[in-house]
Amino acid sequence: MIGESTASARTIFLNAGLASGNGDPVRMDARDTTASLSVAAVTALPAPISLVLRLQAGESKAVAEAYQLHAEAIFAFARRLVGDEATAEDLVHEVFVTLPRAIRRFEENASLRTFLISIAVNHARHFVRAAARRRAAMDRFSRQESAASATPEDEAARTKLASALTRALDTLPLDQRVAFVLTEVEERSSREVAEIVGAPESTVRTRVFHAKRKLREVLAKGGLP
Amino acid sequence: MSDDLLDRATRALRETSEPDPIAVQRTRRRVLESLEARERRRFRLLPWFWPLAALLFGTTAWAATTGRLDSWVAGWRDAETAEATRPMPSTPESVRTRSPEPSRESEGAAAAENPSADAPATESTSELDARSSVAATRDSSSTRRERVPPRSNSSVGPSNDAPADPRARELAAFRHANALHADRGQPSRALEAWNDFLRAHPNGIFAAEARYNRALCLVRLGRKDEARRALAPFAAGQVEGGYREDDARALLDVLSD
């Protein structure tokens, strides 16, 4: 690895996720850089360069460390993208198991979290299709969900809306789905999304535009209030 | 109305898709088990290793006794020399340009052997390099000068048998400082190590991260004014195209509380 230190080590500059003093990841909105951070939390930042070097060396502990830092964010994205918990778990598992190989493509000035999301996007096709097929099969064989629920009314309405949007997302091509989830649901900037999906910003915006138009149509047809 | 519905549905999806901590931990176990299984599979290939090693050893021994080994080694050395004298590929602006190292190395070696006439020229060249952005050649002479006495008693620098390649030396020095930095119980030692690193490699490829980590040490030591000054260029986006800009701003916000 010393021999390739120039190219690979130069690709180290990244913004690792922030960690609290006990190692748990601090959840931060992508645009909110003034979250409630204690000095202890912020100063417990990992050494990103050593983490990436160790990932490149194939250390399992480095993968565990990366998981500790970023799993929740990747899980949330996977959950929003594929639409169910079990498939999201599988996608997250795939992301971190392939990380030791994929880290060789890691570029400078990138964020490790962004890189992990791009891995998830690259692997998403199979998982999205599987989840959509499962949902379609459940719709055929199960009864329609009743509006009445043991949970409070607001919670039930929210869950129903989320479920409707997940089904509407199944009607989109994968690239529009990914662009919509990253931009609208995860509220990432076009620039960041363009970096994740490897497409120009204008292309991302176009995909989001078409996605939203299609989703409005599908939701309107669904008869939701 | 459909816009409002889409917005509401989007918000609902965002709010209802936070991960279950149990699922996160379960998947962590799966990931580690998968990686361990992969390692075990790799380990199973080891029975093939010894026969191949024996074959290699036998081939080398045969080549040595028949005289073929010398011609192979000579050919390899020629290839290495050709590789070393090939012009370096271009690098991004933030990475320093390099002049051909073998010639600089030989200049430095010549200066060491003939200090009278050549040394001043080499020294002044090094000073010019220090003012310019040619960190690689500066490192090769400056680390040679600075290696002899350890500068701080709390952090022993990289060992004296550090690799000859300046970039590898910088990496070794960075790793040493980073190991102290990762041990959060020793911010003073880590700070001295970063200071030593930056004195030796002020324009190296790891300089930006070293400066940022140095700022973190100042924060940990409670030296807020110095920490603010160190973080200011990062927060202003003046370092390496915005490197650590958001993190530095967050830190400055915390320090101002």
Overview in brief:
Chain A has 225 residues and is an all-alpha fold. Chain A has helices at 5-10, 39-43, 48-56, 60-82, 85-102, 112-141, 153-169, 174-185, 190-197, 201-221. Chain B has 257 residues and is mainly alpha-helical.
Q: C-alpha Rg of chain A, in Å?
A: 19 Å
Percentage beta strand of chain A: under 5%
Order of helix and strand elements from N to C terminus of chain A: HHHHHHHHHH
Kindly report the average pLDDT value of chain A. Answer: 77
Tally of helical segments of chain A: 10
- Strand tally of chain B, please? 0
Separation of termini of chain B? 43 Å
The most extensive interface between chains reads: A-B, 67 and 65 residues
Classify the helix fraction of chain B into a percent range: over 70%
| C-alpha-based Rg of chain B, rounded | 26 Å
Helix content of chain A: 55-70%
Main sheet properties of chain B: none
Number of strands of chain A: 0
Order of helices and strands of chain B: HHHHHHHHHHHH
**Tally of separate helices of chain B:** 12
Q: What is the 3D form of chain B?
A: extended
This entry's quaternary arrangement is heterodimer
Task: Characterise the protein shown here.
The complex is a heterodimer of chains A (225) and B (257). Chain A is mainly alpha-helical and 225 residues long. Chain A contains 10 helices and no strands. In chain A, helix 4 (60-82) packs across helix 6 and helix 7 (153-169) packs across helix 10 (201-221). Chain B is mainly α. The longest helix of chain B has 24 residues, at 21-44. Chain B is 72% helix and 0% strand. Chain B is extended. Chain B has helices at 2-16, 21-44, 46-66, 68-85, 101-113, 118-131, 135-146, 166-182, 187-200, 207-220, 224-235, 245-256. The model of chain B is unreliable at 92-150 (pLDDT under 50). In chain B, helix 8 runs antiparallel to helix 9, helix 9 runs antiparallel to helix 10 and helix 10 runs antiparallel to helix 11. Chains A and B meet through helix 1, helix 2, helix 3, helix 4 and helix 5 of A and helix 1, helix 2, helix 8, helix 10 and helix 12 of B.
